[in-house]
Amino acid sequence: MRNKLYWIVIGGLSFWLPVIGISVATVDRTRVVAANAVSLVGLFLLGLGYKVSKTETPKWGWVLAGIYILGPISMLAPSLFVQSPKYIPGEKLWAFLFCLFPPISLWMGLLNGMIFSVLIATVTLPFLANYRPKTS
Prior knowledge:
Helix content: over 70%
Strand content: under 5%
Structural class: mainly alpha
Largest sheet: none
Number of strands: 0
Distance between the termini: 31 Å
Oligomer: single chain
Order of helices and strands: HHHHHH
Shape: globular
Number of helices: 6
């Protein structure tokens, strides 16, 4: 269980932290192409890092689970650094409830433009999870 949780956290953070970083650095004026690109580069660097270190290969299925589980909170995180002009009653409760429903990542990704990288990861990572390198 600990290994699965590790890959969920590492996978989700490698996908979402670069996007959060550039969103905060550019005060939420990040271009959609850049946001999608840095999230996929984060996954690429995760795989490359483990390939270079010659440790176990990433558990790509659990990495994908991390992308969906950490997705809602990660897409809401940059808004913590931006002052909101009005308060909406119950807003924090709805945000918390959204974060408990991982498929909301697709909907939120559609709203903020991250749908492209989420869909690319959704299609690609199951293939990587089933890929077994040939042993010579």
